[in-house]
């Protein structure tokens, strides 16, 4: 078949003050009509620049140095800017990552879509508006006719992304490039958007390039996958084949680093050592060689040519996985998986899993409530309502255990974390840590109490003061708490850096000199400085790439074992939470809807929301992804200012009944004593309820 | 064979050094700051110009000694190039070059002192106001708004009518009307910074509010503060000129660049260009130079641009 898009030896550079970044460096790729090509890679792999090169929307200083981009027989590289304008939108549509910033906040969405229509077709304004309405309906905007005059801020992230897709489709392009279209969205909304893109692809018979860092998204949606590393495609092939039989060591390592694949065990995750190469001066040989466990002299000396199989599965490697050299040390072998520190071996593992000692509850959260006042007026701030962020949440955590708090954005999980460390004051309810009520966190005694709990943040860029050196950052808690002399504090800083695996030379460096993963290590060192008993980790790995995420998770688990730490681990990523947690709590709109042992919650969810969440998470395994019998969570998260009566999930619940609107369900245990659920019709325990819904629908 | 990364895998000799904050390393930080500043040619030229101008104003009178106290009506409005008067003389018979020196002195002194005072007060008020928010912020900012609403000239007239203009009172008067803008700017910055994770981290460690403001909010607002301070110097020199123009400046025989400009205006139809051009050019050059320096400083304090 003739490809719709063929990219030959594309080189794109981004000029800097000194030198230039070779963001895309000799890339070949083909996209066939009507297919979805997944482009996957970590940050800095050049996948976004690839998309922008096709559209020629490169950032300032960026230019295509060499190569050809042939779309439908026309080389885009040679086109003038004027001709290129015609290609954009008409031949190629583009959906950006962040729907919050890619729409104009001062124009109604209908006009923004109509504008895109009028740019490509000679139609009257009213015809364009009619077409805009059609497009909105096509992208599944609920009540499209009423929404057409809404402004972007009146829409949720998921709906805004639908508007972006409508704009991209305005001129019926043959190719749609979606650059991380769902990264900024929650999993249940992600599922809806991906489904929409898939459906539109079939209806409009266009090709889609789906650019993402998430192997799971690719597994479920792409026909073929291209894996990018350091500006080049290292492996490309049919999705099922590539996932089941990865040939490039990078692909293999990437798959092995996913917590999903080690979820049931608390085994150390496979990590890729080191960092991607500096693309201002890329190595001559294979770019993955310095991090590759199969690498030989040959790999460093020259770049491997692309080898292929008849099925179109191609890869650039001298020692592909599955050949005799590769078989010598498969990732799955025990020798490879063994945790690096012998003391953190199997014995600890069993101790950790042993039945908990009920008397050693470290953290007790009891009927916790947090309402934020909603005020209006600039000078006299009148209270006009209350946002119910956390509504009656209770759970306990024993020393040395991890409690995983899961939920979508806006469910109150971060607020719960902030309440625990005392950054917010609860409206009602108590939090007891090591026998002390945190409500008494005032003055000097309060400051001492704070040593017991520390917070670890999501964004490794925002959580470290850019104007303080690493030494000053890690020393800050000691300085605030006036622990020891300055000299003792400095010694402790070095100990801590050693413990989190950073060199002693880091002390006088500044945060911007470190990568995301290293910064997160600094954050961990700071959190551990005061020897806390409890660390509340708020999405500690969500900003990191898969391979780096694995390093940080391993470190966290390792430190937990050594210091008998307890974690409250907050994340939207169920795979990660399952890997690290002993107990999981699922939150929805301020309520804890399900609490139970990690494996239990994951394998036998009782609450329909937990099931929906689990089903919406894309698994990096095409076979399992396809086999999923999905319970789809529809619609959007209701407002927390006016939460639904009764069960808060009922507006999106596929099995909701009348009783759900009237009665607030309480946490109870329908089966195992430790597995609690707040649902009138827990899954698998009220078969007649499900049957009734099926019958009525 | 490559070993999987483990905590502590990065190479270091294991022996933990006693202390790390040795003096030479602290010094390197400042070398880095100066290094980035020096890359900005315009800022470097501006700094050199200001140094030369300051030398001219403060050392110049020792070299080119003139009588700037007694008027001498016999040598009024001499042309530049007259014997002993390179830039001629003004309407009172003062040597223009010498006048430029003492006028420049006053302008620099008052301008820099007023800007520093205004920046200090404005930055602290703004940082605390923004950090605490709520009622305190509301009250402080409404006061600032109220004062900003009074026309500057009216405020100047009122203040100058109450106090006798000396260098000290002028510094206070100019600072009193300049700190408002700084306070607003820094408050805006503080409102944004207080939501940052590292501020939350400091609070969760038990940091007191003053400490958080002084260690996190103010240093991170530094670029805004520094850039604004340079504008403040330029503005203060202009405000001083305005005051002098209204006859509320320093009493003769003291003067400043604005005062000289005003004196020159009296003779503008006589073609005495040498009374207007030198102070006029000096004012423009100083204002522009301070702005370029502000740019350079902003870059220099941006830690990310420092390379070691």
Extended strand count of chain A: 23
The radius of gyration of chain A is: 26 Å
Give the overall average pLDDT of chain B: 81
Number of domains of chain B: 1
What is the overall shape of chain B?
Answer: elongated
Low-pLDDT stretches of chain A are 326-358, 687-697
Strand content of chain B: under 5%
Contiguous runs where pLDDT drops below 50 for at least 5 residues of chain B: 1-26
Query: What top-tier CATH class of the largest domain in chain A fits best?
Result: Alpha Beta
Largest interface: A-B, 65 and 41 residues
Architecture overview:
The complex is a heterodimer of chains A (697) and B (308). Chain A has 26 helices and 23 strands. With 697 residues, chain A is an alpha/beta fold. In chain A, the strands form 4 sheets. An 8-stranded mixed β-sheet of chain A has the order 6-7-8-3-9-10-12-11, sandwiched between helices. A 7-stranded mixed β-sheet of chain A has the order 18-19-20-15-21-22-23, sandwiched between helices. In chain A, strand 13 and strand 14 form a beta hairpin. In chain A, helix 6 (157-168) runs parallel beside helix 7 (187-204) and helix 18 (486-499) packs across helix 19. The model of chain A is unreliable at 326-358 and 687-697 (pLDDT under 50). Chain B has 308 residues and is an all-alpha fold. Chain B has a single domain, classed as Orthogonal Bundle (MetI-like fold). Residues 1-26 of chain B have low confidence and may be disordered. The interface between A and B is large, with 65 and 41 residues. Chain A: Residues 5-255, 369-614 form the ABC transporter domain. Chain A: Residues 336-359 are annotated as: Disordered.
């Amino acid at each position: 078949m003739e490809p719709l898009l063929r990219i030959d030896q594309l080189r794109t550079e981004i000029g800097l003050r000194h030198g230039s970044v070779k963001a895309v460096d000799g890339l070949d790729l083909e996209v066939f009509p009507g297919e979805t090509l997944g482009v996957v890679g970590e940050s800095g792999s050049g996948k976004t620049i690839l998309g922008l090169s096709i559209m020629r929307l490169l950032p300032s200083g960026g230019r295509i140095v060499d190569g050809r981009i042939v779309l439908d027989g026309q080389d885009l590289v040679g086109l003038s800017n004027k001709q290129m304008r015609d290609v954009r939108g008409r031949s190629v549509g583009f959906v950006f990552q962040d729907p919050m910033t890619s729409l104009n906040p001062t124009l109604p969405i209908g006009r923004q879509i109509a504008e895109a229509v009028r740019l490509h077709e000679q139609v009257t304004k009213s015809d364009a508006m009619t077409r805009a309405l059609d497009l909105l309906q096509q992208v599944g905007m609920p009540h499209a006719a009423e929404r057409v005059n809404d402004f972007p801020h009146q829409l949720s992230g998921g709906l805004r992304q639908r508007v972006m897709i409508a704009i991209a489709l305005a001129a019926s392009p043959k190719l749609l490039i979606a650059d991380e279209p769902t990264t900024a969205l929650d999993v249940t909304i992600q599922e809806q958007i991906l489904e929409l893109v898939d459906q539109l692809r079939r209806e409009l018979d266009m090709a889609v390039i789906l650019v993402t860092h998430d192997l799971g998204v690719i597994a479920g949606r792409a026909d073929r996958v291209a894996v990018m590393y350091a500006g080049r495609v290292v492996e490309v092939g049919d999705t099922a084949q590539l996932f089941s039989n990865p040939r490039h060591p990078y692909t293999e390592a990437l798959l092995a680093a996913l917590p999903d694949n080690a979820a049931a065990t608390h085994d150390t995750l496979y990590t890729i050592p080191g960092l991607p190469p500096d693309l201002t001066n890329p190595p001559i040989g294979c770019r993955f060689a310095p991090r590759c466990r199969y690498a030989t002299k040959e790999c460093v000396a020259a770049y491997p040519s692309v080898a292929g199989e008849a099925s179109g599965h191609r890869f650039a490697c001298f020692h592909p996985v599955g050949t005799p050299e590769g078989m010598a040390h498969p990732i799955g072998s025990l020798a490879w998986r063994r945790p690096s520190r012998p003391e953190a071996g199997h014995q600890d593992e069993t101790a950790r899993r042993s039945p908990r000692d009920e008397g050693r509850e470290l953290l007790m959260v009891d009927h916790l409530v947090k309402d934020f006042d909603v005020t209006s007026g600039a000078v006299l701030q009148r209270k006009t309502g209350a946002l119910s962020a956390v509504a009656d949440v209770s759970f306990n955590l024993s020393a040395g255990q991890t409690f995983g708090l899961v939920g979508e954005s806006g469910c109150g999980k971060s607020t719960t974390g902030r309440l625990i460390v005392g950054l917010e004051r609860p409206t009602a309810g108590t939090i007891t840590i090591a026998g002390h009520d945190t409500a008494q966190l005032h003055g000097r005694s309060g400051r001492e109490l704070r040593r017991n709990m520390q917070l670890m943040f999501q964004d490794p860029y925002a959580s470290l003061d850019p104007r303080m050196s690493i030494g000053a950052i890690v020393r800050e808690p000691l300085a605030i708490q006036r622990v020891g002399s300055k000299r003792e504090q400095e010694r402790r800083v070095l100990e801590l850096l050693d413990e989190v695996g950073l060199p002693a030379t880091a002390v006088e460096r500044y945060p911007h000199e470190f990568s995301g993963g290293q910064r997160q290590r600094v954050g961990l060192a700071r959190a551990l400085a005061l020897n806390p008993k409890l660390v509340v980790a708020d999405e500690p790995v969500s900003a990191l790439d898969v391979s780096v995420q694995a390093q940080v998770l391993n470190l966290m688990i390792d430190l937990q074992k050594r210091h008998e730490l307890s974690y409250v681990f907050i994340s939207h990523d169920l795979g990660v939470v399952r890997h690290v947690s002993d107990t999981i709590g699922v939150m929805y709109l301020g309520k804890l809807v399900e609490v139970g042992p990690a494996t239990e919650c994951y394998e036998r969810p009782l609450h329909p929301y937990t099931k929906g969440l689990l089903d919406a998470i894309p698994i990096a395994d095409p076979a399992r992804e396809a086999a999923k019998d999905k319970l789809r969570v529809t619609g959007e998260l209701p407002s927390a200012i006016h939460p639904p009566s009764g069960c808060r999930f009922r507006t999106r619940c596929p099995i909701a009944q009348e009783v759900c609107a009237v009665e607030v369900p309480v946490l109870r245990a329908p089966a195992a004593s430790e597995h609690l659920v707040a649902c009138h019709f827990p899954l698998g325990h009220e078969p007649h309820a499900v049957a009734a819904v099926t019958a009525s629908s | 064979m490559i070993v999987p990364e483990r905590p502590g895998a990065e190479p270091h000799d294991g022996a933990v050094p006693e202390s790390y904050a040795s003096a030479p390393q602290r010094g390197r930080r400042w070398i880095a700051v100066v290094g980035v500043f020096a890359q900005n040619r315009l800022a470097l030229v501006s700094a050199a110009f200001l140094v030369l101008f300051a030398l001219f104003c403060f050392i110049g009178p020792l070299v080119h000694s003139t009588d700037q106290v007694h008027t001498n009506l016999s040598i009024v409005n001499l042309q530049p190039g007259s014997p002993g008067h390179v830039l001629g003389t003004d309407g009172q018979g003062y040597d223009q070059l010498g006048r430029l020196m003492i006028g420049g002195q006053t302008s620099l002194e008052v301008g820099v002192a007023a800007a520093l005072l205004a920046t200090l007060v404005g930055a602290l008020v703004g940082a605390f106001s923004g950090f605490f928010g709520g009622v305190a912020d509301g009250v402080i900012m409404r006061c600032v708004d109220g004062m900003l609403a009074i026309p500057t000239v009216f405020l100047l007239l009122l203040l100058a009518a109450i106090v006798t203009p000396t260098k000290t009172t002028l510094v206070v008067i100019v600072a009193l009307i300049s700190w408002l803008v700084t306070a607003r700017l820094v408050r805006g910055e503080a409102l944004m910074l207080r939501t940052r994770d590292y501020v939350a981290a400091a609070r969760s460690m038990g940091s007191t509010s003053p400490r958080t403001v002084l260690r996190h909010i103010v240093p991170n607002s530094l670029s805004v503060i520094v850039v604004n301070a340079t504008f403040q110097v330029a503005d203060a020199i202009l405000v001083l000129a305005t005051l002098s123009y209204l006859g509320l400046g320093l009493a003769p025989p003291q003067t400043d660049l604005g005062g000289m400009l005003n004196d020159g205006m009296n003779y503008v139809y006589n073609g005495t260009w040498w009374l207007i051009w030198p102070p006029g050019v000096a004012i423009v050059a100083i204002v522009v130079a301070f702005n370029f320096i502000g740019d350079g400083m902003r870059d220099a304090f941006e830690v990310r641009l420092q390379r070691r």
